[in-house]
């Protein structure tokens, strides 16, 4: 077993480390103040995108002909680095959710026309996209509950329903939605759903309001919208794949999406640990630096051990995705989605504690990092849903026996 990065990864890592130092961390200064309150990213993101393209640090997430051609194992340490500045680095490199998952869907399941119309501008970074599945009226962690209807009428589909917490949808640059709904509520449970492309300017579609996350509106990266689809008509050719394939496509989409979140969470945890160490060396209550208090040393040691454990599991899941495919990596992807957000949340919480009041304020990224990590114990499937599914698969082996 070789734990070293290969030559290609090492080359990308060096260039990305330099990019982070030269452009990303400096852009953090004044980033919040530069946000214009219009739900679109501060202008510096477009500047960094141009620089990232020139530096060859573009679309790193996407394997195959459409992206940089990196394997998941090669991408993992790069995504981790971007997680150190999660509101700037991922969009700067065109590697931010939810666009990444949407590009993967279009690359894998889109028709040539859909790829030409929507994948191309998304890969260029000239438009943004959103993925609309969750609904306020039903327990959406169970996708079979989804109530939005997609009804065929002649050459069109008519979409009616309500969605919320649709990330990125408040951003005016978000021009296209991938919407999950039911084409046949009477079919078998997992073939009732379909996915369809809905351009933002389609009549009947209303982006109603931004939903908050622990009081943050996340406006600088497009917010999380509540949306209403009231008899929205799109051409039948906007359906992705076949009628009834929505559930299967969402499973395929969520695998890479989940591991990418976990890769970035490792970077968030590393950033928090670094801040905790620096602060505890600099702050001296009761006559000695915090760093010399046993309780703080325990937080620091525990954090390092937890990060290393989590990273090994993420890398194993990435390696499995590369070698046996996303399906073969199912258990490990679920395992990391269970453990990595809560690991990052724990470490960020300790870093907040070590900072005192400053930890919950606007002068460090910690409060917002915590909110992001906590949120990821819900988004892309709550912890309990992944645990339920993992336990069932584990039990299944013994039931069979
Ligand atoms: C910041 C943020 C961004 C998001 N972005 C998007 C997006 O872009 N697109 C989108 O479609 N959705 C998005 N979501 C929604 C997210 O995917 C859903 O919130 C999630 O799938 C859970 O669905 P729900 O909120 O309906 O919870 P419910 O399904 O109502 O579940 C509520 C709780 O019940 C518990 N639970 C559920 N099943 C079980 C079980 N079997 N055993 C024990 N307990 C259980 C869990 O603790 C769960 O949190 C986002 C959410 C957040 C917070």
UniProtKB/TrEMBL annotation:
Any idea which UniProt keywords this protein has?
FAD, Flavoprotein, Oxidoreductase
Q: Which cofactor does it need?
A: FAD
Q: Which SUPFAM superfamilies match?
A: Acyl-CoA dehydrogenase C-terminal domain-like (SSF47203), Acyl-CoA dehydrogenase NM domain-like (SSF56645)
Ranges for domain Acyl-CoA dehydrogenase/oxidase N-terminal: 7-125
Acyl-CoA oxidase/dehydrogenase middle domain location is 130-231
- Record-level Gene Ontology MF annotations: acyl-CoA dehydrogenase activity; flavin adenine dinucleotide binding
Question: Which InterPro entries has this protein been placed in?
Answer: Acyl-CoA_dehydrogenase (IPR050741), Acyl-CoA_Oxase/DH_mid-dom (IPR006091), Acyl-CoA_Oxase/DH_mid-dom_sf (IPR046373), AcylCo_DH-like_C (IPR036250), AcylCo_DH/oxidase_C (IPR009075), AcylCoA_DH/ox_N (IPR013786), AcylCoA_DH/ox_N_sf (IPR037069), AcylCoA_DH/oxidase_NM_dom_sf (IPR009100)
Gene Ontology, cellular component aspect: cytoplasm
Q: Name one Pfam family in it.
A: Acyl-CoA_dh_1
A GO biological process of this protein is: fatty acid beta-oxidation using acyl-CoA dehydrogenase
Report whether Secreted shows up as a keyword of the record. Answer: no
Q: Where is the Acyl-CoA dehydrogenase/oxidase C-terminal domain?
A: 244-393
- Which PANTHER family does the annotation name? ACYL-COA DEHYDROGENASE FAMILY MEMBER 11 (PTHR48083:SF13), MEDIUM-CHAIN SPECIFIC ACYL-COA DEHYDROGENASE, MITOCHONDRIAL-RELATED (PTHR48083)
- Give the quaternary structure: Homodimer.
Q: Which family does it belong to?
A: Belongs to the acyl-CoA dehydrogenase family.
What is the protein's given name? Alkylation response protein AidB-like acyl-CoA dehydrogenase
């Amino acid at each position: 077993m070789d734990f070293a990065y290969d030559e290609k990864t090492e080359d990308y890592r060096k260039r990305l480390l330099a990019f982070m130092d030269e452009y990303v961390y400096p852009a953090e200064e004044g980033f919040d103040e530069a946000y214009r309150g219009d739900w679109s990213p501060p202008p510096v993101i477009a500047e960094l995108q141009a620089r990232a393209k020139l530096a060859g640090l573009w679309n790193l997430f996407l394997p195959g002909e459409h992206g940089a051609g990196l394997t998941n194992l090669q991408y993992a340490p790069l995504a981790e680095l971007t997680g150190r500045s999660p509101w700037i680095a991922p969009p700067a490199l065109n590697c931010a959710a939810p666009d990444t998952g949407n590009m993967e869907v279009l690359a894998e399941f889109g028709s040539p026309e859909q790829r030409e119309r929507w994948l191309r501008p998304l890969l260029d970074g000239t438009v943004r996209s959103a993925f609309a599945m969750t609904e306020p009226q039903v327990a959406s962690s169970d996708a079979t509950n989804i109530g939005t209807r997609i009804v065929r009428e002649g050459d069109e589909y008519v979409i009616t329903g309500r969605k919320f917490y649709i990330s990125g949808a408040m951003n005016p640059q978000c021009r296209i939605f991938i919407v999950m709904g039911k084409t046949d509520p009477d079919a078998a449970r997992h073939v009732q759903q379909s996915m369809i492309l809905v351009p933002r300017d389609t009549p009947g579609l209303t982006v109603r309001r931004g939903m908050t996350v622990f009081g943050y509106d996340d406006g600088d990266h497009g917010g999380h919208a509540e949306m209403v689809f009231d008899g929205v008509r799109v051409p039948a050719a906007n359906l992705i794949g076949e009628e009834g394939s929505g559930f299967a496509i969402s499973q395929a989409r969520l695998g890479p999406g989940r591991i990418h979140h976990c890769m970035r969470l490792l970077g968030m945890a590393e950033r928090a640990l670094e801040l905790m160490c620096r602060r505890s060396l600099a702050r001296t209550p009761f006559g000695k630096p915090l760093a010399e208090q046993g309780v703080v040393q325990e937080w620091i040691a525990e954090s390092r051990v937890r990060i290393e454990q989590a990273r090994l599991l993420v890398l194993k899941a990435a390696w499995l995705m590369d070698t046996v495919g996303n399906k073969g990596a199912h258990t490990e992807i679920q395992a990391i989605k269970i453990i990595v957000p809560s690991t990052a949340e724990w470490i960020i919480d300790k870093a907040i504690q070590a900072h005192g009041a400053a930890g919950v304020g606007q002068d460090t990224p910690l409060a917002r990092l915590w909110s992001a990590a906590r949120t990821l114990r819900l988004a892309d499937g709550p912890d309990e849903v992944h645990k339920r599914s993992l336990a069932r698969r584990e039990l299944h082996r013994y039931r069979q026996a």
